[in-house]
Design brief:
Helix content: over 70%
Order of helices and strands: HHHHHHHHHHHHHHH
Shape: globular
Strand content: under 5%
Distance between the termini: 9 Å
């Protein structure tokens, strides 16, 4: 069994925490992916729910625009092209991204993988966390799951979202805030950064086409973007009636104190990595810590006008690339030994 190793200058024994205990690399890996898959399942459920409600509210759209709107979900979760089959495009994609176990980022796949990782570290998480995740798993695997979905997709997705939030709350309240908990925080925030960047990128691309090709008001679609990131009410409190694409992008990317903004998530992931490194008795920042530190500095001193001048999509893709680099560096530093 391999111990997790943190590169850097070791702290003298007298300065190290008396209870600092390196985790097994496989345990750290399982803790990370358990939390990340739960967070991903929540995002998939929320986007499917928001799209279903949004496209009902906006009324008639051309078939091409409707297909593009639904395609953004597949693009966001890198799930390929529109699944083959008959019937309206929305329900086909919703079923595909909910139940298809051959699709790595479907809700059923994410929950199954989260539970598999949790089972590998059963002794490292609380019984409440295990029971919650086990309940989610058997709910999506139940014989009546598809019938419940067909009866009310909205309720089905809402149940996944609230179960994920319950799981995260239990992890905060029933685990020691040590290395194990910090790995769940890194996982949660890296996933949130990645999905938020892709939501903004894909949806704004469609909104640009929509403005050029139709007379659809985009305000309701901007509200959909905000709902996809759990941020509509907070945005309204800060910006009142000022609902425009540039302000929405600024809020979701650069807002300092909102838990779903990219900037907030970068800072939280970096802080969690710092705590992991310190608990291992190392002074020097780790490779993923440095990557996220540079991204944090960029977001700290970036102005939205500079982002828009350089291209919003380009900026968001750079963030996604940086998150991927940080994830790879995290695995090399802590898991692949």
């Amino acid at each position: 069994m391999t111990l997790m190793f943190q590169a850097g200058t070791p702290t003298p024994p007298a300065l190290a925490s008396a209870d600092a205990r390196p985790m097994l690399s496989r345990d750290a890996d399982s803790m990370f992916w358990m939390a990340r898959y739960v967070e991903r399942a929540e995002h998939v459920a929320r986007l499917l729910r928001v799209h279903g409600v949004l496209l009902t509210d906006v009324g008639d759209l051309t078939q091409d625009l409707e297909a593009q709107m639904w395609q953004t979900i597949l693009t966001t979760f890198r799930s390929g092209e529109l699944p083959e089959g008959d019937g309206p495009v929305g329900p086909r994609i919703a079923r595909h991204m909910t139940f298809d176990l051959n699709t790595p980022n479907s809700i059923s796949s994410c929950i199954a993988r989260a539970r598999e990782n949790a089972r590998a570290i059963r002794e490292s998480i609380s019984s409440e966390m295990w029971e919650c995740l086990n309940a989610i798993y058997w709910s999506v695997q139940a014989d009546d799951a598809q019938a419940r979905f067909e009866d009310s997709p909205d309720d089905y997705f809402y149940g996944i979202m609230t179960s994920s939030m319950l799981f995260q709350g239990l992890s905060n309240q029933t685990m020691a805030h040590d290395q194990r908990w910090n790995f769940t925080q890194v996982a949660k925030y890296l996933e949130r950064i990645d999905v938020t960047a892709r939501v903004i990128d894909t949806r704004f691309e469609v909104l640009t086409k929509m403005e050029a090709e139709s007379d659809q008001p985009i305000n309701i679609h901007l509200m959909g973007v905000l709902r996809s990131c759990c941020s509509l009410e907070t945005y309204r409190r800060l910006h009142l009636a000022d609902l425009d694409a540039d302000t929405v992008a600024q809020f979701l990317i650069l807002q300092r104190d909102f838990p779903r903004s990219i900037r907030f998530c970068v800072d939280q992931a970096r802080d969690a990595l710092e705590q992991v490194r310190k608990s291992n008795g190392s002074r020097s920042p780790s490779a993923p810590e440095r990557i996220l530190g540079r991204l944090s500095s960029t977001l700290e001193y970036t102005d939205i006008n500079e982002v828009l001048t350089g291209g919003l999509s380009t900026f968001l893709q750079q963030i996604q690339t940086t998150v991927a680099e940080a994830s790879m560096a995290l695995q090399k530093t802590y898991f692949l030994y």
